Every structure is written in C-alpha cells, then in structure tokens.
Amino acid sequence: MRRALIHRSYLNEHAEALEDNERLEFLGDAVLDFVAGSYLYHHFPEMQEGRLTRLRSALVRTEQLAVFAQDLSLGPMMQLGRGEEEAGRQRPTLLCAAFEAVIGAYYLDSGIDAVRAFVEPLFETAAGQILAAERDQDAKSLFQEWAQAALGQTPRYYDVAATGPDHDKTFTVEVRVGEEVFGTGTGRNKQGAAQAAAQAALHKVEHTP
C-alpha cells in the first residue's frame, strides 16, 4: 500500500524508493473493471448489455475515480517529485492513477473479496448519481443531437493540448459549434477528453436560459 502512493517523479528524485506505483495502477485498472462489471451484472438484472457497458465506463472513468480518490484524501498522501508537486496534487489524472494503484495494492494484500467489499459501496452511490443525471449516456451523441436540433449544425472537436510525460499525459479537447466553444474537457486519452468536453457542453446548454 505504501508503494501505491509513490509516483514515478518521486522515484526519480529518491534513490531509496525502489518502485513506483505504475504496475499497481495497471493491475488496479483491471480489477476495477472486473468488480464494476460484476457489481452491475448482479444489481441491475434487467439492464441490457449496451447500457451496462456505458454505466461501467462511467463508473471507472478518470473523473469518477478521481472523486473516489478525493473522498479518501489520497492527494495529500501521495509522494511526488518537485515538478509534479508544483503542477498540483488534485489533478484528476493523478488522483485517478493513485486510486487505481491503491486498488491494485489492496487486491494483492487482501484479495478480491476485500476489494469488492471496499468499492461496491462507492459504486452504489456513484451509480445512483450517474443514472439520475443520465451521465451514462454517450455525451457526444447527446450533444450532437442537441446541436443539430437546436442550431442545425454538427459539433466539431479540436485537440487543444497534451501535457505531462509520455507515461502520464493529460489531453485537452474543445467542442465547438460553428465558432463558439461550448465545452472543454480533459482525459487520459483523446476519446475521454472529447467525452468530457461534450459533457461540459451539455451542462452549459442545460443551464442556459
């Protein structure tokens, strides 16, 4: 569990730290996918496969896992190098990676049943919120439907930035209708950033008189 909170940047500056959390992050990502899929299968017996897939994606996306990490106060506990420290401990990609690494460590230390008991209450609360807000729907498709109906135009997505080292990049994408920017999103890949941008755009149009 201590290793789960060691970022690669800290390892580069402290020779006494023998391993960072990237392998645990890889393992935790796979464990979360499995546990989320199992949880949804058993708790939503009438839900079709396509909706289950979208809901699982919403439960384990970067922003949602970052919320779990914030609730657990993982940010202050992480061991970071100076550069990462200056960039900020509350970045969603950093928090998401920390949460995945912690889950990977918990799985190795205590097994799948312990992980299930730990994360399923988190999933239960988050799933209810996601379904209530319909955040499991494909945001790009929903925003395209709105833009074509309301404005008669198709949204376009533009890559704005890619920051961070190769192993931990954060992508930023804008969605525009015509010349107007309707939303900006970040993610660990371009597809996730585009979905986040579309979600931001939907939030904007829903709250615009």
Describe this structure in words.
The termini are far apart. The chain has 209 residues and is mainly alpha-helical. Helix 2 crosses helix 8 and helix 9 (139-150) crosses helix 10 (190-206). The chain is built from 10 helices and 3 strands. Helix content is 62%, strand content 11%. The radius of gyration is 18 Å and the shape is flat. The protein has a 3-stranded antiparallel beta sheet, with helices on one face. It has helices spanning 8-13, 22-43, 49-59, 62-71, 74-77, 82-87, 92-110, 112-133, 139-150, 190-206; strands spanning 156-163, 170-177, 180-187.
Key terms for this structure?
single chain; 209 residues; Double Stranded RNA Binding Domain; 2 domains; three-stranded antiparallel beta sheet
Gist of the model:
The protein is mainly alpha-helical. It has helices at 8-13, 22-43, 49-59, 62-71, 74-77, 82-87, 92-110, 112-133, 139-150, 190-206, and strands at 156-163, 170-177, 180-187.
Q: Can you summarize the main beta sheet?
A: 3 strands, antiparallel
User: Number of helical segments?
Assistant: 10
Q: Provide mean pLDDT, rounded.
A: 89
Class from secondary-structure proportions: mainly alpha
| Overall CATH architecture of the largest domain | Orthogonal Bundle
- Let me know the number of strands: 3
Q: Strand content of the residues, in percent? A: 5-15%
CATH topology-level name of the largest domain: Ribonuclease iii, N-terminal Endonuclease Domain, Chain A
Rg, Å, rounded = 18 Å
Return the CATH class of the largest domain: Mainly Alpha
Q: N- to C-terminal separation?
A: 48 Å
Please tell me the total number of domains.
2
The main sheet orders its strands as: 1-2-3
- In terms of per-residue confidence, which ranges show pLDDT below 50 for 5 or more consecutive residues? none
Give the topology string: H per helix, E per strand: HHHHHHHHHEEEH
Estimate the global geometry from the Cα principal axes: flat
Helix content: 55-70%
Task: Give me the CATH superfamily of the largest domain.
Answer: Ribonuclease III domain
